[in-house]
Design a protein that fits this description.
mainly alpha, Methane Monooxygenase Hydroxylase, Chain G, domain 1, 2 helices
């Protein structure tokens, strides 16, 4: 994997963070909180968590690769 893959995941994460804020603003607006708004923010947060995990995996894979290369030298 490359830095480009991590960059794409970070961009996707940022887009989801913005969407989460929109969901939060909807929930915070006066009036009844719809179940749909709550489900939406939960789903967005789950997607953020999945992307965070993928980023961690890619970063760990890069570290492992660097260590292997260092061991070969």
């Amino acid at each position: 994997m490359s830095d480009e893959d991590i960059k794409q995941l970070m961009n996707a994460r940022e887009a989801l963070v913005q969407k989460r804020m929109i969901c939060a603003q909807t929930i915070a607006a006066p009036g009844d909180v719809s179940d749909n708004a709550i489900r939406s923010i939960v789903e967005v947060q789950r997607a953020i968590d999945v992307i965070d995990f993928a980023i961690e995996e890619l970063e760990q894979a890069e570290l492992d690769e660097e260590l292997e290369e260092a061991d070969e030298e």
